[in-house]
């Protein structure tokens, strides 16, 4: 078995939530083209209500100071399209003078401070912070618990971007995914990691390590005995974001070698329901992790 440790730059729940749309074959969906949008300035310019359909059953309300902080005009964006508005220099009493839609899917606004700018309508909808939207986001971000089997994907699917997306989506939702059909070579395992991120997180084991029984093992994973469920290197200040285990086939004469995956979130939830006092201790009391080797 080989370990490949990756920096957590390519996969997070926030980026791979169920609400994200995967775009294939150059197609692109624009939210502003799917709805009839109506704007209304409220509270003396303190808020802007956006109705996303003609029935006004789907609405978002944005505060004027938040809109000014996130203005996307050329004056408020750097050459690299990053917002450069300084929050501490803003007047918290800033109000919207007027707001209207443009034919380019933007909301053009003028504020009481004299600034004129715009925000992308699609961006506003994706970043809505209404109570209804936040409730839906919490529901979508609730992890799915593993059942009796892991989600599976054939390695041939990873030749296409859509297959890589399906793989990362399964990892994001369930925490683990089984890739099948990967050749039993180190280079093939490394090639799979490069589909996620080109950056391997080096440890004192190197970029990857081979887990096999050694004559004089320095760690439990290189010994001949059974290894209990555990999390790798919890003593690290910066822990591994995603670990790939490349499981090689043993000879037919070898027994054992099964890999067991434990859903830690499901275990924690069961502990919370069955032993709430113990769960409260678990989340409240800090624990120090260290690796002690008594012969060193």
TrEMBL record:
Presence of keyword Flavoprotein: no
GO biological process annotation, one example: carnitine biosynthetic process
Gene3D superfamilies listed in its UniProt record: 3.30.2020.30, Clavaminate synthase-like
Domain Gamma-butyrobetaine hydroxylase-like N-terminal: 45-117
Key words of the record: Carnitine biosynthesis, Dioxygenase, Iron, Metal-binding, Oxidoreductase
Domain TauD/TfdA-like stretches: 165-293
GO MF terms held by the record: 2-oxoglutarate-dependent dioxygenase activity; metal ion binding
Keyword Coiled coil applies: no
Cellular component terms (Gene Ontology): mitochondrion
InterPro entries attached to this UniProt entry: AlphaKG_dependent_hydroxylases (IPR050411), GBBH-like_N (IPR010376), GBBH-like_N_sf (IPR038492), TauD-like_sf (IPR042098), TauD/TfdA-like (IPR003819)
Source organism superkingdom: Eukaryota
Residue spans crossing the bilayer: none
Listed cofactors: Fe(2+)
Pathway entry: Amine and polyamine biosynthesis; carnitine biosynthesis
Protein family (similarity comment): Belongs to the gamma-BBH/TMLD family.
PANTHER family: GAMMA-BUTYROBETAINE HYDROXYLASE-RELATED, OXIDOREDUCTASE AIM17-RELATED
UniProt-recorded name of the protein: Gamma-butyrobetaine dioxygenase
Organism encoding this protein: Geodia barretti
Origin organism lineage: Eukaryota, Metazoa, Porifera, Demospongiae, Heteroscleromorpha
């Amino acid at each position: 078995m080989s370990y490949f440790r990756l920096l957590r730059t390519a996969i997070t729940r926030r980026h791979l939530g169920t609400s994200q749309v995967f775009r294939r074959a150059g197609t692109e969906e624009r939210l502003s083209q799917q709805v009839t949008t109506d704007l209304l300035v409220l509270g003396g310019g303190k808020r802007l209500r956006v109705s996303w359909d003609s029935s006004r059953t789907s609405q978002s309300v944005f505060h004027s100071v938040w809109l000014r902080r996130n203005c996307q005009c050329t004056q408020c964006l750097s050459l690299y399209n990053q917002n450069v508005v300084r929050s501490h220099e803003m007047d918290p009493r800033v109000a919207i003078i007027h707001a209207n839609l443009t034919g380019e899917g933007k909301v053009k606004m003028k504020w009481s401070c004299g600034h004129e700018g715009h925000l992308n309508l699609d961006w506003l909808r994706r970043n809505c912070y209404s109570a209804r939207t936040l409730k839906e986001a919490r529901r979508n971000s609730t992890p799915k618990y593993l059942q009796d089997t892991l989600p599976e994907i054939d390695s041939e699917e990873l030749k296409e971007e859509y297959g890589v997306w399906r793989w990362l989506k399964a990892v994001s939702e369930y925490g683990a995914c089984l890739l099948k059909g990967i050749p039993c070579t180190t280079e093939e395992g490394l090639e799979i990691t490069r589909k996620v991120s080109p950056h391997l997180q080096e440890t004192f084991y190197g970029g990857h390590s081979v887990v096999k029984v050694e004559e004089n093992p320095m760690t439990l994973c290189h010994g001949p005995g059974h290894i209990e469920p555990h999390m790798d290197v919890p003593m690290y200040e910066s822990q591994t974001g995603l670990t790939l285990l490349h499981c090689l086939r043993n000879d037919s004469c070898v027994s054992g070698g099964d890999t067991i995956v434990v859903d830690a979130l499901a275990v924690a939830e069961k502990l919370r329901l069955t032993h709430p006092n113990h769960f409260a201790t678990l989340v409240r009391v800090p624990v120090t992790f260290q690796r002690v080797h008594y012969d060193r």
